[in-house]
């Protein structure tokens, strides 16, 4: 099985026609590091996550996962990446357990039932395990989608607005989950607008502005204050 | 073995979803029956169908309802971007293609199970006088149509105006399938049954299937990467 | 990417090719100017009369169209599997030319058919195959125009399938037609007709190659312009 302990983006650009979504973004992250990806809407955050997830190829520049790159490592590398996107990647007609079971098998995991049970437990959906996802509230879906994305214990975790639609208890659970991922040595990239929620959970923060990457300086003050200063 | 397992995993998931909603089956079936009816008004005169009308109507109904089923099957994967989730997983991509293809084929087979006897009844066509050749034509024809259709529908998932573009792309490419299906069926339905002709069309369809399934397996990966 | 745009501009052998296109165009123009004289001098076909002369344009254009379809298919395969952007530009230019050549074939064909068979459209094997092929390339262009970002790869897949489809279309349409035989009037070439025919074919091929080259270059310039726009923004 392929594994890696660093993610390195070097001068990554991506344009859609004449619109430049990302301009020469360079970013390095090591195992156990959690990086917040901030910035206004349409700044290129989702594009950056899609590129890191190997879903989109960069127009120029290089993305490396340890010693591997997406083109040569292919499926084995994709099996080490987990993405929670804006769309939740769940089949509404299937039940919570069926969704998890299907993706567990797609990822060729062992001990499928045990993992499914554990994931349902973490999502707080054990009692609703056999209900169709179509009947779930936004928050329940979000919790399930997060567990689906982390089902295969990925090394690289990419979370796009994971706090959307979560109530207080679920937000709290997600904060604990993020801390656990950091402990487990995952590389976590998380985009969010909930600066207060994420503060204290991250090692550093970067900001995308019109496709360009700006580092938010460490130092005094809350994350929001530092973010304001960088804007 | 791994390939077959993955194919079955994807197909079973699609069948499970369809078994829950039955949306594609019911709408496609109803659409196919409507097609047969609409064409009957054009090609039945004084209670008797014109020339090879039965063969033509049967295959037009299959092609039209097939397009509908293909569009819906992939719209379902687009709704919450599950196709992207599958593309992101370590899944063997050609197996993903074959899995989707099998799902579409089973659906179309279910539709044909109703539509073929219906056409036989309504147009007094002895469709099952030569069951082996007839089933062969239906099977290879449907596989050829769905093989091209599955690839095109999958790649159009991330294109704009996909609903219109699917038939625009699919019909010109599958014209050999339609011709072979219609002429092969007509050869079996006419007063003097022309078995060698039906066999010739059947072998062309087999050849078409081999070429286009191979080509689709080969192009699926590069076409699907953004 | 400023660098990419600049460094890609005219490496040596390509610069030579670029100078060759105007020359090819001139030769093709001269050949076309002389073509009517050759066609006039060719033997007069007694049953068809003057309308037979359309054959000297109709058939070479059709042949060039098939060449163009294969150019598009092969270039698309190179783009799809090799990732060469240049091949995509060639494929696009070839698809547009296939579409134009196909239109010429589909207009001149019925003119012939009117005289030969007394109807404007006959479901003749060649004419029908041409129509199908033309439709495939229309579909290709529609996809490129309305498919949104990323449709270049999808279109390449369509072109590849379209190319693989040519023998199937031809065979199936041909057999379909012979099921109900009709009087096909495709005259076998008399020796005196061969010269002007191949002359016209050569003229069309020259025209095709030079227009393809110029059109590809235009597309490349456009890509360079896009790159410069992006570089300015940066």
Q: What does this entry show, briefly?
A:
The complex is a heterotrimer of chains A (231), B (226) and C (234). Chain B is mostly helical.
Structure overview:
Chain A has a domain at 6-80 and 154-230: P-loop containing nucleotide triphosphate hydrolases (Rossmann fold, 3-Layer(aba) Sandwich). Helix content of chain A is 35%, strand content 26%. Chain A has helices at 45-52, 70-78, 96-106, 112-123, 138-150, 168-183, 195-198, 223-230; strands spanning 6-16, 19-30, 34-38, 60-65, 68-69, 81-84, 156-160, 187-191, 204-209, 212-216. Chain B has 226 residues and is mainly alpha-helical. Helix content of chain B is 83%, strand content 2%. In chain B, strands 1-2 form a two-stranded antiparallel sheet. The model of chain B has no long low-confidence stretch (mean pLDDT 92). Helices cover 82% and strands 0% of the residues of chain C. The N and C termini of chain C lie close together (9 Å). The interface between B and C is medium-sized, with 35 and 32 residues.
Work out the helix count of chain B.
9
Q: Beta-sheet strand percentage of chain C?
A: under 5%
Average per-residue pLDDT of chain B, rounded, comes to 92
Distance between the termini of chain C: 9 Å
* Regions with little confidence, pLDDT below 50 for 5+ residues of chain B: none
Q: In terms of structural class, how would the helical and strand content of chain C be classed?
A: mainly alpha
| Number of distinct beta strands of chain C | 0
Helix and strand content put the structural class of chain B at mainly alpha
Binned, the helix content of chain B reads over 70%
Whole-number total of structural domains of chain B: 1
What would you report as the Rg of chain B, rounded to the nearest angstrom? 18 Å
Give the percentage of residues in beta strands of chain B.
under 5%
Strand order of the largest sheet of chain B: 1-2
The gyration radius over C-alpha positions of chain C equals: 20 Å
- Gross morphology of chain B is globular
Instruction: Outline the low-pLDDT stretches of chain C.
Output: 1-11, 179-186
């Amino acid at each position: 099985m392929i594994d890696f302990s660093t993610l390195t983006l070097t001068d990554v650009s991506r344009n859609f026609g004449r619109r430049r979504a990302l301009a020469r973004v360079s970013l390095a992250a090591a195992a156990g590091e959690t990086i917040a990806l901030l910035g206004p809407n349409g700044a290129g955050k989702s594009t950056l996550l899609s590129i890191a997830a190997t879903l989109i190829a960069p127009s120029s520049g290089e993305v490396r996962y340890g010693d591997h790159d997406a083109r040569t490592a292919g499926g084995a590398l994709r099996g080490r990446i987990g993405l929670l996107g804006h769309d939740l990647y769940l089949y509404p007609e299937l039940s919570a357990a069926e969704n998890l079971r299907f993706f567990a098998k797609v990822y060729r995991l062992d001990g499928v039932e045990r993992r499914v049970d554990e994931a349902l437990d973490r999502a707080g959906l054990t009692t609703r395990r056999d209900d169709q996802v179509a009947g779930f509230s936004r928050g329940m879906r979000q919790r399930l989608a997060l567990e689906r994305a982390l089902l295969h214990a990925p090394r690289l975790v990419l979370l796009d607005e994971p706090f959307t639609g979560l109530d207080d208890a679920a937000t709290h659970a997600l904060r604990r989950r993020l801390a656990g991922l950091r402990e487990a040595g995952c590389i976590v990239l998380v985009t969010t607008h909930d600066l207060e929620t994420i503060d204290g959970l991250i090692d550093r923060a970067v900001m995308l502005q019109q496709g360009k990457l700006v580092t938010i300086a460490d130092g005094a003050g809350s994350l929001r204050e530092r973010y304001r200063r960088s804007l | 073995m791994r390939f077959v397992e993955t194919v079955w995993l994807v197909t079973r998931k699609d069948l499970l979803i369809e078994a829950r909603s039955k949306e594609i089956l019911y709408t496609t079936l109803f659409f196919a029956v409507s097609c047969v009816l609409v064409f009957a008004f054009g090609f039945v005169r004084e209670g008797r169908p014109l020339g090879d009308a039965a063969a033509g109507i049967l295959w037009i109904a299959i092609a039209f309802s097939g397009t509908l089923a293909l569009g819906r099957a992939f719209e379902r994967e687009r709704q919450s971007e599950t196709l992207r989730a599958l593309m992101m997983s370590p899944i063997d991509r050609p197996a993903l293609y074959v899995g989707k293809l099998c799902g579409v084929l089973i659906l179309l087979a279910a539709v044909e199970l109703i539509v073929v006897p219906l056409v036989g009844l309504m147009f007094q066509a002895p469709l099952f006088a030569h069951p082996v050749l007839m089933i062969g034509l239906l099977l290879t024809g449907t596989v050829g149509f769905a093989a091209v259709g599955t690839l095109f529908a999958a790649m159009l998932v991330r294109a704009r105006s996909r609903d219109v573009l699917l038939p625009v792309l699919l019909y010109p490419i599958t014209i050999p399938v339609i011709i072979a299906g219609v002429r092969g069926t007509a050869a079996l339905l006419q007063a003097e049954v022309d078995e060698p002709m039906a066999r010739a069309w059947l072998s062309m369809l087999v050849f078409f299937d081999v070429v286009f399934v191979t080509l689709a397996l080969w192009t699926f990966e590069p076409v699907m990467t953004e | 990417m400023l660098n990419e745009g600049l460094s890609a501009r005219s490496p040596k052998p390509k610069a030579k090719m670029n100078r060759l296109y105007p020359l090819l165009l001139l030769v093709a123009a001269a050949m076309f100017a002389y073509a009517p004289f050759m066609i006039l001098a060719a033997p007069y076909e007694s049953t068809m009369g003057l309308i037979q002369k359309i054959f000297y344009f109709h058939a070479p254009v059709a042949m060039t169209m098939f060449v163009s379809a294969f150019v598009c298919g092969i270039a698309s395969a190179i783009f799809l599997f090799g990732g060469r952007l240049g091949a995509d530009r060639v494929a696009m230019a070839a698809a547009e030319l296939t579409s134009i050549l196909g239109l010429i074939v589909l207009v001149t064909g019925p003119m012939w058919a009117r005289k030969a068979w007394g109807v404007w459209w006959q479901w003749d094997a060649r004419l029908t195959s041409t129509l199908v092929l033309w439709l495939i390339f229309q579909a290709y262009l529609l996809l490129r125009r309305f498919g949104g970002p990323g449709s270049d790869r999808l279109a390449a897949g369509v072109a590849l399938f379209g190319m693989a489809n040519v023998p199937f279309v031809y065979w199936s349409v041909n057999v379909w037609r012979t099921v109900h035989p009709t009087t096909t009037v495709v005259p076998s070439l008399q020796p005196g007709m061969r010269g002007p025919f191949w002359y016209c074919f050569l003229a069309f091929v020259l025209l095709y190659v030079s227009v393809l080259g110029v059109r590809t270059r235009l597309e490349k310039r456009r890509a360079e312009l896009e790159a410069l726009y992006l570089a300015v923004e940066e």
